[in-house]
C-alpha cells in the first residue's frame, strides 16, 4: 500500500468481513473509521450508521454516516474488495491511478485505504442502469467525459496492458479445478487450445493492422460504474480498479458491450447511428456536428474490432471468478455467453477492419 501512503492517504491494516450482514459488520466498520480518521476516535458507536449501497459482481459498497460532536453528519463510502480479487486486479496500479484521476475531477476522493478495501467520499447520485446508457443526452455526456478521462496522464509506463492482462487471465483460467462436479464438467467442455489460438490470431489482427491510439483507459465502463445526480444533471465515472494504459477502441467497444447488461442481451448493442452519435461527442466534444466522416469511420472500425477483445477479456476473467468468488453469480455461464458472442461477431468485425484497410478512405 506504499502508493497510498506516498500521497499521505491514511492507512489501516484492519479488515472487514464482507460475508457478514451489515448490522454485524458495524463494530468492525466503527473500529476501522476510528483507526483511519483520528477526529472520530472518541465518538461512541451510536454516532455511526452503516447501510449497503450497492454491490457489483466483485465489490461491496457501504455508506457509512457519522454524526460528529458538532451535530454535522458526514457520509463516506466504504468499498470492500471481493475476496481473491487480487488475482485479476492490480491494487497498486489502481491506487496510483485514483490519485491522478481524482485530481482531474473523476470519481470519488480517496480518503483512506485498509486491509481489504478503501474509504472514499460519498457521491450523492444514483447508479445508472444499462438502459440509461443509450439515452442520447446521457450517451453524449458519457462520451465527453470519457474523452476527458483518456486525456489524464498517469505516471509510469505507457505500454498498453491489454494483451498482458488477457494472457495472464488465460494462464490462470486454463488451469483451474472445481470441487463442484457439475461445474468441473462444464469447465472441461472448454477447448483452451481453441481459446489460445483465437487470442493469438486476434492479437495479430488488431496490433498488426489497426494503429489504435493508446490512452489511460477505464476498461470497465459498465452502467454500475456510472453515476448520475439527476437534480444537477452531473455524471460521475467511478471505480478505476481495471484501469490501465490500453487502446482507445477497447475502452469504447467494451462500453458498448455493456449495453447488453449482465444478461448479455446483445440485441441491445448500439446500432451504427447510436455509435456515431457517441463518436461525434467523443471526438469533438465542443462541436460534435463538425467531425469529419473519415474520423467517424476509423473509430467505428477500431471500436468494432477491439470490441472482440473485450469479449475474450471478460470471458477469461469470469472463469477465474467462477473459482475464486463467493458471490452468487453464474460466472461459468457468463464465460460461454461472452465467448459465444465473440465467435458470432468475429468474422463480421474483422472483415470490416480488413475492407476498411484495403479500400479507399472516406474524405
Could you write a compact summary of the structure shown?
The chain contains 11 helices and 11 strands. It is an alpha+beta fold.
Descriptive account of the structure:
The model is unreliable at 1-6 (pLDDT under 50). This protein is globular. α4 (136-150) crosses α9, α5 runs parallel beside α10 (293-324) and α9 (272-283) packs across α10 (293-324). It has helices at residues 2-6, 22-36, 91-103, 136-150, 162-173, 181-188, 192-209, 248-257, 272-283, 293-324, 331-358, and strands at 11-12, 48-55, 59-67, 73-81, 110-114, 117-121, 126-127, 214-217, 226-229, 234-237, 244-247. The protein has a 6-stranded mixed β-sheet with strand order 1-5-6-4-3-2, sandwiched between helices. With 363 residues, it is α+β, with helices and mostly antiparallel strands. The chain is built from 11 helices and 11 strands. The N and C termini lie far apart (50 Å). Helix content is 46%, strand content 15%. β3 (59-67) and β4 (73-81) form a beta hairpin.
What percent strand? 15-25%
Mean pLDDT, as a whole number? Answer: 92
How many beta-strand segments? 11
- Taken in chain order, the helices and strands follow as HEHEEEHEEEHHHHEEEEHHHH
Low-confidence stretches: 1-6
Largest sheet: 6 strands, mixed
Amino acid at each position: 500500500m506504499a502508493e497510498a501512503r506516498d500521497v499521505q492517504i491514511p492507512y489501516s491494516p484492519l479488515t472487514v468481513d464482507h460475508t457478514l450482514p451489515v448490522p454485524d459488520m458495524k463494530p468492525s466498520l466503527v473500529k476501522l473509521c476510528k483507526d483511519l480518521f483520528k477526529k472520530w476516535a472518541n465518538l461512541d458507536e451510536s454516532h455511526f450508521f452503516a447501510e449497503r449501497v450497492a454491490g457489483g459482481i466483485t465489490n461491496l459498497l457501504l455508506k457509512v454516516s457519522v454524526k460528529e460532536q458538532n451535530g454535522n453528519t458526514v457520509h463516506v463510502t466504504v468499498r470492500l474488495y471481493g475476496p481473491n480479487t487480487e488475482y485479476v486486479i492490480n491494487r497498486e496500479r489502481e491506487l496510483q491511478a485514483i490519485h491522478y484521476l481524482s485530481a482531474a475531477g473523476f470519481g470519488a476522493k480517496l480518503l483512506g485505504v485498509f486491509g481489504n478495501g478503501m474509504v472514499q467520499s460519498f457521491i450523492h447520485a444514483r447508479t445508472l442502469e444499462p438502459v440509461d446508457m443509450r439515452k442520447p443526452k446521457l450517451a453524449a455526456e458519457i462520451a465527453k467525459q470519457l474523452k476527458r478521462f483518456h486525456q489524464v496522464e498517469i505516471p509510469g509506463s505507457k505500454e498498453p496492458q491489454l494483451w498482458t492482462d488477457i494472457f495472464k487471465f488465460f494462464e490462470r483460467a486454463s488451469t483451474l479445478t472445481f470441487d463442484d462436479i457439475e461445474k468441473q464438467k462444464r469447465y472441461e467442455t472448454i477447448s483452451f487450445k481453441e481459446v489460445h489460438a483465437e487470442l493469438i490470431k486476434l492479437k495479430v489482427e488488431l496490433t498488426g493492422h489497426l494503429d489504435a491510439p493508446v490512452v489511460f483507459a477505464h476498461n470497465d465502463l459498465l452502467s454500475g460504474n456510472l453515476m448520475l445526480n439527476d437534480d444537477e444533471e452531473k455524471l460521475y465515472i467511478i471505480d478505476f480498479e481495471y484501469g490501465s494504459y490500453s487502446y482507445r477502441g477497447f475502452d469504447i467497444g467494451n462500453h458498448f458491450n455493456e449495453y447488453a447488461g449482465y444478461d448479455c442481451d446483445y440485441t441491445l448493442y448500439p446500432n451504427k447511428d447510436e455509435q456515431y452519435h457517441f463518436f461525434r461527442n467523443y471526438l469533438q466534444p465542443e462541436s460534435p456536428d463538425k467531425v469529419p466522416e473519415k474520423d467517424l469511420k476509423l473509430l467505428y472500425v477500431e471500436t468494432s474490432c477491439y470490441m472482440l477483445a473485450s469479449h475474450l477479456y471478460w470471458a477469461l476473467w469470469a472463469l477465474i471468478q467462477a473459482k475464486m468468488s463467493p458471490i452468487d453469480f453464474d460466472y461459468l455461464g457468463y464465460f460461454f455467453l461472452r465467448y459465444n458472442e465473440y465467435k458470432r461477431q468475429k468474422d463480421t468485425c474483422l472483415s470490416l477492419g480488413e475492407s476498411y484497410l484495403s479500400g479507399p478512405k472516406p474524405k
